Amino acid sequence: MSGLGSHDETHRPKRCLIIGGGISGLSAAIRLCDLAAAVPSSGPRFEIELIDSSERLGGTIETVRIGEYLVERGPDMFITDKPAALQLCLQLGLEDRLVALDPEYRGALVVRNGSPVPVPESFQLLGSARIGPVLFSPIFSWPAKLRMALEPLVRRRRESTDESVASFVRRRMGAEVLERLVQPLVGGIYTGDPETLSLQATLPRFPAMERRYGSLWKGLRAGATAESESVRGARYGLFVSLIGGLTELLEAAAENLRGRCAIRQGRAVTALRVVDDPERSDRYHVELSGGESLEADAVILALPAHVAATLVRDIDGVLSEQLAAIEYASSVVVVSGHRLDEIEHPLDAFGLVVPHCEHRRVIAVSFASRKLADRAPAGRVLLRTFVGGALQPELCELGDADLQSLVSEELQALLGVAGTPDFVEVARHTSAMPQFVVGHADRVSAIFDRVADLPGLAVAGNAYHGVGVPDCVASGTDAAEAVWGGWAV
Ligand SMILES: Cc1cc2nc3c(=O)[nH]c(=O)nc-3n(C[C@H](O)[C@H](O)[C@H](O)COP(=O)(O)OP(=O)(O)OC[C@H]3O[C@@H](n4cnc5c(N)ncnc54)[C@H](O)[C@@H]3O)c2cc1C
């Protein structure tokens, strides 16, 4: 057994194991190392170690070069109005590597009766600040437009309990807006079903808008005015990436941790137990694949909730059940490179979303090199086609060859993509996207209450307070601070 060898409690360094080397775990490690580095050399000592089951750090984040294409297999950008990821990039010296999305192609397309049409300008996920673009949009029927125009007359909801995204939109804007636009936009982000997704956990600013302004039109208009008067975020734009892809963030994180945090890759944690010995303060016994085991004062589980659930089963059965109750959806990203002159439809947007009611087999297509021009060589375009999600889970079961031909058929039908692509690559994300269903916020606060009763244990990851990269960075940072707070250094 490795570990500390001696249990002389006075001189023993405090040890924290961070399990999971995705962006959540890496962020936890960086924050914990920073806190430890600030302790004077005469003070207590610390050992911080990160363990990941994969040979590659980064979890869902992975950038690969295929010929002259720069391909993201997972996320390809992050939002800056939640500042944690941007701040981490700045801390890691990546300021000059940040790149904003190309404003020329800002906007999205949505499929209507088999053809792509533009999403009305100023439409923001559930509503719009301006009526004009909605009234002239071919997406909605005239009765639906009238129903939307009457939204300010819809009474505020009295109850403060959570509701689904679908229920909120149907209530305020009408069923057609939900079916034709909100479902594909929101479903595309969460690979989820708006009928079950929690409004409070996914888009809390919209119920807040209803409470404050009594109307989404009014709330979004007020927000648009405030935004245009504010200079915040103007320097970077709302979404950014890194010139060499998000892998640059992983590389910079690993470099930052060099010499401060041991990193063990290719080892899965298989079991976690509390050491039942009142003489010892290193409470946790951690078993790894390959038969090795470690002991630690603190453990941060920066893992999908379903993996964390299995690891805490022997420590707290109720916590394990609460974690296991967070459902996950799978998706597949089929990435392909094409000649632009072999695509009939002008790709004058960042991407295309596909309503479920159109009965297609793709959720969305991101025009990756329209967002970031350098991702494809001149005269070519990089497409990322999303398949599966909560509404079509069976498609994730298909083999690579079937997925490639399915996507090829759909791209041909929806965008007129012809010819043989330069390459096609299949990236699978199995049980990777947590589903924030109605009641999620209550479930998460019950989980955090329970974790707080287990000294030295913390959880981080995309399952709790948000799925985006900035949410994950913030969750890792918070978990490190929770462990540090418990050590009361
Ligand atoms: C296809 C896709 C596209 C996305 N696009 C965006 C986007 O554009 N912008 C954005 O902000 N967000 C996006 N997201 C969301 C975001 O990428 C993820 O939520 C985030 O990367 C998750 O990070 P994480 O560290 O919490 O988890 P993960 O990345 O899942 O990392 C968990 C780690 O734990 C390790 N692990 C698992 N089990 C064990 C074990 N037993 N022992 C040890 N290690 C273990 C895994 O190997 C993995 O490295 C996207 C997600 C997907 C799936």
**What is the tally of helical segments?**
16
Instruction: Kindly report the name of the CATH homologous superfamily of the largest domain.
Output: FAD/NAD(P)-binding domain
Average pLDDT reading = 93
What summary fits the major beta sheet? 7 strands, mixed
Shape: globular
Question: Domains counted in the coordinates: how many?
Answer: 3
- Oligomeric nature of the chains: single chain
**Helix percentage range:** 25-40%
How do you describe this structure in short?
The chain has 489 residues and is an alpha+beta fold. It contains 16 helices and 22 strands. It has a 7-stranded mixed β-sheet with strand order 8-7-18-19-20-17-21. A 5-stranded parallel β-sheet has the order 12-2-1-16-22.
Task: Give your account of this protein's structure.
This protein is 34% helix and 23% strand. It is α+β, with helices and mostly antiparallel strands and 489 residues long. It has 3 domains: 14-59 and 244-326 and 437-487, 3-Layer(bba) Sandwich (FAD/NAD(P)-binding domain); 105-229, protoporphyrinogen ix oxidase, domain 3 (Orthogonal Bundle), CATH 1.10.3110.10; 328-434, Polyamine Oxidase, Chain A, domain 2 (Alpha-Beta Complex). Helix 1 packs parallel to helix 10 (247-257) and helix 2 packs across helix 16. The structure holds flavin-adenine dinucleotide. Flavin-adenine dinucleotide binds at residues 19-25, 51-54, 59-61, 74-78, 268-269, 302-304, 307, 331, 333, 429, 432-433, 461-462, 467-469, 472.
